[in-house]
Amino acid sequence: xxxxxxxxxxxxxxxxxxxxVAALSGLPCGEGRLLQGRLPExxxxxxxxxxxxxxxxxxxxxxxxxxxxxxxxxxSFASLAHAAVRICAGxxxxxxxxxxxxxxxxxxxxxxxxxxxxxxxxxxxxxIHNLAxxxxxxLDLAERVGLSSDMAGxxxxxxxxxxxxxxxxIRYADRISIVSxxxxxxxxTARFGCGMEGLLQQRRADIVPIANGVxxxxxxxxxxxxxxxxxxxxxxxxxxxxKRALLDMFGLPVMARAPLLALGSRITHQKMADVALAALxxxxxxxxxxxxxxxxxxEHEYEAGLQALAARFPERVAVHIGYDEERAHALHAGADMLxxxxxxxxxxxxxxxxxxxxxxxxxxxxxxxxxxxxDAGNAAxxxxxxxxxxxxxxxxxxxxxxxxRALGWYAKSGEWNALQRAAMSGDFSWEQPxxxxxxxxxxxxPQATVQVEAAAxxxxxxxxxxxxxxxxxxxxxxxxxxxxxxxxxxxxxxRVVAA
Length: 499
Fold this sequence. Notes:
single chain, alpha/beta, ten-stranded mixed beta sheet, 19 helices, 34% helix, elongated
């Protein structure tokens, strides 16, 4: 397995035993090079694409310190795509893949550039993680990034007078994977299609929904080193210690039998921050023992609104603007319930993290959340197997009603414990998604040579957290091994470049 990704300064500093494997010229950015080595956290061979643009990014890979998009994003990510195509075309010393796998707009030029380069024996997959991020730039950049006039037209990458990297990927990829079954249906509609629903409807036969997974080792209450007491599904007593620690971390007093509601995501319009700001004061006034902690950052207007709410209820509301791993793990381990309103959600990692820690999600019934959270319903007892509370709508009343339902279950310890146990028992690992991606790769590469290697499971053959596309800026070349103990029809080792 070899990973190809931008040579950000942190990646360059961490790369062990680096050696240059290719010098690239004629790129949109000018010149670049490929460095091969190993990154300790991955444990496999890594290739970094080094160019001036990526070398300057010491923080966020997409925006500068003021939150503005880097002016060279289009050129730098187009150059990454060209580097991947050079590998696919056999113009480097690296193995030629059978499939190139592009993730989101950052690598979505690859399928189009494969056609420009005349590469016909490498299939392409585009994964859409979030259709709202499209990589739209001035149309006059098309020639510089390597697209012909035909490809830059309305039937190609042109999108409302702009050049859209994502549209190029949707138009030219052999297959399109989308990160949850519900979101795969939603993007075909005007409400969720972000203007691309027509093209996606044309490509519907080539869309493959494959749900994401989570890192079940990093988010595991039984082994988590970032929480004060570890606990599991068969012993939730230590969760009370985590709740006390979370209250202390946020400067709130401990109140006996008081429910603790957490918010832990981007504070934005998409995440219904405006709805939460309308709903929470009413909930706090109705339920005088309810406490709230909020962690995240986003739009300044909503950040200020949460801080004002904390000032209004200083003993019951606390807000931390920002993000760090320790607070995030403490929040999921210590809260009783997670409020996660959202206007759209391709997959939804945060509710899954909360469920793994027995924190019950109260979330919008959209996208991947609809596929991963089982609503408790409105009956006297939660539905069998229920793991959370889902709500429809975007009004404060909709959110309030959902929180009220959850508070009703919280008051009944037996019902609440059943919700927690069901939530913690879900399988959200990468194992099944890994099988689905392997099957997709093999369906596109019938010419691949069969080489079965002994392995106990798919997770052993291709470690779940690293064998699949997790970040849209990554490009990977991977060799997938078939587990000899579990022969699956059509499975072959397929070299894959994923970007």
